[in-house]
């Protein structure tokens, strides 16, 4: 069957060179042309034309921090790759980077095979993998080059969670192993030893509900771990990525390290820019509504929210991802009703990230800044640019047509994430993905899926 050329006509195109009116031409799985001012009418003969006047045309958004169809030590996440990438696409995200995770006693190759088995053939959006390392040994070290050959150039380690965390020497060795090809290490920065002890103390004080969660993971636990990572990066010269930064103290550690030449990338998430720790005191759902916000790191003080928002505006944040790790309130999180330590950690967000970010910063940032935070930053950081993250001839035909005039309300009843709540219930969103293309195929229109599943694995270099 002959490929039909698609033309996105009359939008405001968000390109590496700036924003201008014009047309985008899609042929097969690639962007064939970006035409300032637009094509002549005669050039549209035989094309499928989409009128996108009044819309911003972005390269497809990238969520570089998700956990789909994953066992977290407590339970399986609610979203599979099928449901999670469908929801992502409905919101304008055309590529996720998920954390394939090596369990203790498992090889990296086995972990990668398991994630491919879960994802391949099921996805609406494209998918790449970071490789999370939980069992560092000589065999794991030898597999690093195999991962690189498989298109994985970013890795993850943890300073918290007993079943996942590595010690400082092991973390240093991982950094040394990935430095030769300029790999990047993403790190969950919380001091796990302190968290374990503080959880015990908080529970023994009789605080058993969700409000115990932030008390047991104070900002010092994050900042100390970020500082430790900064020194390990300085020692080895390897690149690092501080994931889900949630505190002003942690932000200050990154700033100080950058002053000394540390190559530290910085990620934060919508929840740390919009929500604060008063949510743990919510008394709905039979007094257990605060469990919706049990994620690690936890929601923080309003002063932390303000500090991170200032950092976004100052250009200090490289990308905003979600840490999408969904668990149902009923049947999963409520297993910890008598003990906050047993509430599965994580929350949903992959569907709503673009709308949340563009609404909350609509008076302060423009389309170029949104493009960097939601697409280009992650593409550059993780070895996908300009194949992804650029609206340019030759780039992949992953495109989000964004209608800034749309008005709608986020709610669990209408979302596509396979979870029974959203932390953003009732949020009045300004702007919505009108059309979303993955590999040149229309996968979502006005927030609803078309049923196409063209998502493919993204090997990175």
UniProtKB/TrEMBL annotation:
Coiled coil: none annotated. One of its GO terms (cellular component) is cytosol. The modification N6-carboxylysine is found at residue 156. GO terms for molecular function: hydrolase activity, acting on carbon-nitrogen (but not peptide) bonds, in cyclic amides; metal ion binding. Its cofactor is Zn(2+). Signal peptide: none annotated. It comes from the Bacteria. It holds the Pfam family Amidohydro_1. The keyword Isomerase does not apply. Keywords: Hydrolase, Metal-binding. Residues 56-443 form the Amidohydrolase-related domain. Carbamylation allows a single lysine to coordinate two divalent metal cations. Belongs to the metallo-dependent hydrolases superfamily. Hydantoinase/dihydropyrimidinase family. This is Dihydropyrimidinase. It comes from Parafannyhessea umbonata.
């Amino acid at each position: 069957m002959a490929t039909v050329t698609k033309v996105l006509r009359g939008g405001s195109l968000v390109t590496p060179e700036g924003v201008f009116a014009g047309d985008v031409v899609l042929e097969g799985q690639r962007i064939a042309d970006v035409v300032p001012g637009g094509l002549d009418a005669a050039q549209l003969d035989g094309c499928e034309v989409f009128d996108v006047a009044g819309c911003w045309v972005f390269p497809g958004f990238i969520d570089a921090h998700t956990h789909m169809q994953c066992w977290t030590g407590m339970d399986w996440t609610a979203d599979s790759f099928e449901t999670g990438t469908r929801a992502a696409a409905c919101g304008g995200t055309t590529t996720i980077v998920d954390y394939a995770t090596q369990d203790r006693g498992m090889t990296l190759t086995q972990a990668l095979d398991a994630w491919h088995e879960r994802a391949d053939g099921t996805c609406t959006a494209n998918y790449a993998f970071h490789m999370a390392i939980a069992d560092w040994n000589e065999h794991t070290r030898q597999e690093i080059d195999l991962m690189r050959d498989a298109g994985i150039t970013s890795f993850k380690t943890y300073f918290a969670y007993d079943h996942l965390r590595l010690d400082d020497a092991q973390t240093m060795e991982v950094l040394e192993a990935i430095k030769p090809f300029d790999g990047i290490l993403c790190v969950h920065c919380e001091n796990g030893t302190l968290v374990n002890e503080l959880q015990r103390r908080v529970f023994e004080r009789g605080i058993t509900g969700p409000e115990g969660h932030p008390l047991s993971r104070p900002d010092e636990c994050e900042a100390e771990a970020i500082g430790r990572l900064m020194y390990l990066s300085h020692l080895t010269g390897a690149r690092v990525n501080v994931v889900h930064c949630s505190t002003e103290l942690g932000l200050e550690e990154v700033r100080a390290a950058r002053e000394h030449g540390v190559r530290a990338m910085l990620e934060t998430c919508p929840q740390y820019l919009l929500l604060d720790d008063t949510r743990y005191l919510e008394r709905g759902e039979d007094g257990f509504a605060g469990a919706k916000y049990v994620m690690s790191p936890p929601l923080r003080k309003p002063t932390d929210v303000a500090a991170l928002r200032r950092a976004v505006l100052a250009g200090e944040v490289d990308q905003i991802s979600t840490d999408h790790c969904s668990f149902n309130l009923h049947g999963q999180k409520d297993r910890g009703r008598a003990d906050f330590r047993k509430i599965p950690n994580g929350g949903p967000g992959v569907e709503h990230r673009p709308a949340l970010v563009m609404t909350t910063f609509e008076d302060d940032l423009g389309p170029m800044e949104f493009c960097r935070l939601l697409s280009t930053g992650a593409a550059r950081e993780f070895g996908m640019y300009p194949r992804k993250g650029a609206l340019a001839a030759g780039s992949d035909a992953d495109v989000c047509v964004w209608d800034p005039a749309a008005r709608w309300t986020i709610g669990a009843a209408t979302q596509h994430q396979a979870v029974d709540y959203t932390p953003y219930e009732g949020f009045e969103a300004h702007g919505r993905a009108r059309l979303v293309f993955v590999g040149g195929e229309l996968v979502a229109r006005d927030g609803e899926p078309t049923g196409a599943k063209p998502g493919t694995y993204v090997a990175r270099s």
